[in-house]
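The passage that follows is intended for readers who have already worked through the single-chain material. We present the inputs for a multi-component assembly, then the predicted structure in tokenized form, and finally a short commentary. You are encouraged to pause after the input and sketch how you expect the pieces to fit together before reading on.
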Amino acid sequence: MTDTIGENNKKPIGAVMVIGAGIGGMQASLDLAEAGFKVYLVESSPAIGGTMAQLDKTFPTNDCAMCIMSPKLVEVGRHLNIEILTTSEVIGVEGEAGDFRAKVKRKPRYVKLDACTGCGDCATACPVPRLDLFNGDLSLRKAIYKPYPQAIPNAYAIEKQGMSPCRNACPINQRAQGYVALVREGRYLDAYRTIKEDNPFPSVCGRVCNHRCEDACSLNQVSEPVNIMALKRFVTDWVWSKMDHGELDPQAVKWHEVQTDTRHKNVAVVGAGPAGLTCALDLRRLGYAVTVFEALPVAGGMMRVGVPQYRLPYELVQREVDEILAEGVELRLNSPVKDVPGLLEQGYDAVFVAVGAHGGIKLPIPGVDLPQVLVATDFLRQVSLSATEDLDQFIKGKRVLVLGGGNVAIDAAMSAIRLGASWVGMSCLESRETMPAHDWEIRDAQDEGIEVFPSRTFKEIAQDNGKVTGVRCTQINFRGFVDGRPDFDEITGTEEIIAADTVIFAIGQRPQVECLQGKVEMVRGRFPHVDEETLATNVPGIFAGGDVVTGTSFIVNAIAAGHRAATSIDRFLQGKPLKSELQRPPLVQLSELEIQQRAITAAQDYHIRHDTKQRPAAERKHDFAEVYLGLSEEEARAEASRCLGCGICSECLQCVYTCRANAIDHNQVETIEEIPVGAILLTPGVEPMDGSIRPEYGYGRYANVVTSIQFERMLSASGPFSGVVQRPSDAAHPRKIAWIQCVGSRDISCDQGYCSSVCCMYATKEAIIAMEHDSNIQATIFYMDIRAFGKGFDAYITRAEKENGVRYIRSMVSSVKEVPRSKNLRVNYVTFTAEGKPIPQEEEFDLVVLSVGLKPSSAAIETAHRLGIRVNEFGFAEAPLYHPAQTNREGFYVAGAFSEPKDIPETVIEASCAAAQASALLAGGRGTLTRQAVYPPERDVSQEEPRVGVFVCHCGINIGGVVDVPDVVEFAKTLPNVAYAERNLYTCSQDTQQKITAKIREHGLNRVVVASCTPRTHEPLFQDTIRQAGLNPHLFELANIREQDAWVHRATPQIATEKAKELVAMAVAKARRLKPIKRGTFEISHQALVIGGGLAGLTAAQSIAQQGFPVYLVEREAELGGNLRHIFVGVDGSNPQAVLSELIHQVRSDPRISVFTESEVLDIHGYVGQYVSTICHKDGSREEIPHGAIVVASGAREIPTRLYGYGEMAGVISQRELEAELMNGTTLPQRVVMIQCVDSRDDDHPYCSRICCTQAIKNALEIKRRSPQSEVVILYRDIRSYGFRERLYQEARQNGVIFVQFDPQTPPKVKQGTSTLEVEVLSQPEQEWLKFESERVVLSIGVEAQPGNEALSQLLKLPLTAEGFFLEAHVKLRPVDFAADGVYLCGLAHSPRAMDETIAQAKAAAIRAVALLAKKELTATPIIASVNPRLCSACGLCVEVCPYGARRLEAGAAYAEVVAVLCQGCGACVVACPNKASQQLGFEFLQIAEMIDSAIA
Amino acid sequence: MTAFTYYPGCSLESTASEYDASVRAVFKALQVELNEIEDWNCCGATSAHSLDPLLALALPTRNISLAQAAGKDIVMPCAACFNRHKTADYELRHDPQKRAQLEQIIGFTYQGNIAVRPILDVIVTQIGLKSVAERVVRPLRGLKAVGYYGCLLVRPPRVTQFENPENPQWMNQLISVLGAEAVPWSYATECCGGGLTLTKSDIAARLVSNLADHAREAGAQTIVTSCPLCQLNLEMRQREDPKMPIFYFTELIGLAFNLTEASGWWKKHLINPLPLLDEVLTQKG
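Having made your guess, compare it with the prediction:
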């Protein structure tokens, strides 16, 4: 595999894609970006941070996870060369290493990242609660959410599964799920607005819709659909009744400002029915002048004159028409249009023809022209226009027969009953079952006494002297319509006359289209021909829609046509192509299982639908008052709670209405982007195992059994219980808590045969922290082996046991049972007596925490498959032993827990290791795609009077809803030196940054104060802004009036306002005194020094060189290779010596590496970027070398033990010696006993040497492999085969290696027998003395720090641990750094570790060094200490307290200096200085004093 | 009409004849045909399965061969019978060598076209809770019961393929459909010690007491079983008074269906259930 490309051919692409933005992905991104590469950080969720963001504290230092990670989040978020792609996934990569094209699927977030300020108002408005996965499902969030408060990007995202079936089924895409959700929340006015968004006739559609939404409702699969129509009616009834009772201001529903004719175009709409009026309203809102022509004296079309008012009261229609007119639509009643094309000539720019289908039809049979034969449309129109007197002669006291079986027929029949007919019948072609009217309608009609005669064909209208006497008909077998003609057989002998005085035809309607003057193309001569999508006719400018095009149809279809026509007319008038290419979101289709699950969670009694009641038939048939009654509020909310929320986001638009930054965009669609990159890093991390993987522990069915990740959230101050440890079942404070280890780990019964590596430690940490939160808590941890193999881990466990009183019980829990009432848990396990007798135990606990294992997410495995990255049987992308972070595909690297379960520091190390390899691969492309911030020259303000500009932020309603912001602005204007003050809705938004820049120029401002939120996230942004305006970034001050004011004083707005003023006054007071701070820059010597020529040093040197920088490698001994020279068997059975000699060869032959063996570093002086070291060679000669960075890889050694007769008895050897023997020996020992933890994990060495368990198992297996009948016994305390090493442990047991546990209190005894060694051991827990005869006793001897570390640490001023290993800057997040910049650490000098881990760490150290060396120059931290030489008395206190060696007092100097490049700005020296000679820049005495003065003034 | 091949097993001819009666009555009421295998033989649950591994498979295989000829799934009320037959079927399906051996012994060709199923499975998943619910005329309102599966119905899950073996739900769903209250408890699949009831009756008694105590603790008035040995053992080995009557789930279905035959079943119980039934069912009826 090539390590570097592009040396001979074209340059590689200087960009890297990192997939997965947990702590590993973040670290790799930062390393690469700092090392000169452009980074695309791809994350599938809406925020970076990964699992670490969920953790409460971290072991073994108990640091707050979020506190230590948050600065990294911000750094990644603000890095100029890291582009974060959230809600994205990589779907394919083409090309080859150095020249890839990555296809990235960018899923819609529905929130514009550049506009969202993260204020959170949208989430308050959102009516859709969701279980909060971030909080382990223990609390709720909204469908629009930010995963956690510190999330980067600091922006919201909408969880949307797609368009709900109800909305999708509706012709106008009415947001049914939206208003249903709002009704459930009791937000009826908001629901009304959501409905009105798409429907100007909600009270109509709440009554007479065919509600396809309900047909599509997912609940149909398990029950009856949500009564969506009734809910719509409920909302309109509620709103109007409130208005009628004066409880709701009519202005409250005026969401649209009345438009003026901004477009200067006129549109004519012909017909004031639902289609015409909808179109008119839409166009009016777009700014067109619209005139509606209506032939009748009333508006509303069929809604008004077609639907009887017992179904739809007229005043409702009128009310909704009036609302449309109130927005400026002009309506001309009694104005039939005779010539539509003529309208265009009259000056209308477009016409919408929506005249409906009002022409009635009769059958061509004898007698139809008699006066007593009516047509339903005319009849109903007359009824509705109150011309009922004319109808009395035909109806009152008469027998009325309606011909037809649809809704119109029903309407006619029921109207006739109400007008006083003595008898009403209906007859139709169709059978009772196939009648087009709804079944319930027919039953309602029958309830009112209407007789139904289905399956009949009509022969003639029977008459007697011009008076109708009935209808002659025959019964038929009706089979349906063929080509529009009825298909039936008459049944002979069934002819009859149904007696009637009046006959009403209700067999269909036709449009009256004479007005089109024959100029518009027609279909079948009856309907205008239009384009289905655009509704355009063949005449440009003439559009038609609604019943006139489709024939009689439903109101909602007409409204849909109105909307569509408006869109088309708008496009037409703007000269755009009529067809738009708007993509629709995908339809949600839930599986039956999903539906069932959601139904159960939605509502307990989801199967009970709330139907509207109707007045009794006997009562209602006598008047025209409304038949159906609405739902009560209680019924409505219960009904709404049945909704399954198919789309998750209900698309109710409340977020859109609330967001003042206009950041929400529900129309976003998925896009695919192709990004060129040179290398790809996979850091997708892992996820916790589902707690129900071991169902006998009752996770998911016992409320008080939680997973460890849930418990992390329970401990977290920002978690669901605000850090109070309480039980989910009853919020009681648990006293006894049990942790069960290895749930889904080390468990082949559930195919998880690996160790998850971190659970022993995190369980201990959780136990300690829980006990710290609540001292009443007693913690018990049930475990198999305690695997505390990391640096400082064993000491942590000992502390937990000895000091905190955590009870550790070595036993696998067999089952957990729930106590019925208390919901306590009975834990069943086995203990052993002092005699070794097993006793089953049942112990009751208040809470059980399952220490669940880690596994790759299915999405991560899928990504790996898609990208052709091989994964192992557990789904991990396991890296080759000698090449950590590498994959099977060149140019692809993998890091973090996705390659093997690991903790945070190992993840960070491996991430850096992967970054180092990408950096080496792409060395030729370094710096080609990165960019640097470009600023205008800085303005010199030293001679100016302070002119302070104050910008006070509303932060939406976050601040503005509590603090009187205008008042604060007015106050700010009165403060001294304030030259300008203003307020902003969101001071952090993009446009406000431009505004601030403009104001600085306009008003000559030279200090800026922003009063908004926390400086932690926002100060860098504002500093950047004023720098863009030519000001030094440190002439800025921030007053936090959100977190420190508005949020905590919500209840007392007045006090909050006063406090805001004081905070602003303090900030201004300080701002007046602010001085520019110059950042020092320093040159860099672009070479590295590596101390130590073992595996770590060799690897680090090689990696730095491969990344393009010269290296000096210094080794004390004559030979390179260190401890690795003694290892002959790898865990995979390979021989590491081959690898070592190849590595040494490569290092020695690399011209960029100068190797000095038998040499030592005598002296180092200088500082980061500019060291000069003195090297002493074997011959005593000395050499001075300059370098910018140092890598400490000085190694460690095997403890020279005296235990178990080592060095005395011939057969007692070390594992190393065994390996040498296995390598060279001809005879294989047949009986071997190995003893673990020799000079390890004891009082002198209170730490685990980490490698010995694996080494022993590996060697035992080697013996067994070669000689299966041999006897190999391993005496151990805990087997620490973490990660995939567990497989070796399993293999060893399967192959017959005998494992015997002993107690360190009674260690094994080794004696020289007659011919063999005799080993006696007291086995645990059986308490039996076992005796083994053995040819070899092999000691697994611990590792200890090099004795030389002391001297080196003094030379470099680096700290050591109590055990003599080097102490890194931060055990979690800076595992290879030192507090002092420029020095890095790797290998055994850090702590005992395995070969692969050493290689990874060495490469990690390498890229940390390269990130420094790749810089042209170094910039010092701005906020550092400075010295006023005149005040300094050279007392030296500052030198003593400085932890970074940044204070210096040369002998005889008059004052102490600050080495700017080393100073980290901690302020310790400032505090120590008795003379105020040391000052912290940006926080100088006078600046702070002014603030205090202002505060107490 | 749906039909099944029926294997009653020996217990249902003797100690658990009321189980057999209730199964037949309930299936009749549900209009599902049960065709008893003609000339069925012992399933081998008693001693054969621990003494002779091959005989342990051959015995049930013969019954399977008879059922195969009938072409319908073979259903059985007894958990032990089910376990033996299911194990044999599992071996026939997964071990070609064993299959050949067994085919030779029995003299048939295994086709694997019928399934071995417990009665509970058939009622819940095939006949369906909806059909049961529709037939309920006398809901058992007021009765608090825990569902109990014991061990042989669910274990080993690899062989039995039982739904959710650590936390099965069928019995509770059924109890709810009958109008009774299915009280949650954690011991639905614990062993009752039935296998030791004669040889080590003290152990059986301890395990039974545990179950009865836990059922009482959960607020239940009865334990509902689907295994003749569980039912017998749970009644026979209860020590504390008042003793809790134990029902077969089919008996409760019969009660809720208001089957007249039901009154004949109780005399076979060692603990008289009538006081409880009177108390609960007359009160709230």
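Commentary: Chain A has a mean pLDDT of 94. Residues 219 and 1378 of chain A are 61 Å apart (CA to CA). How closely did your sketch match?
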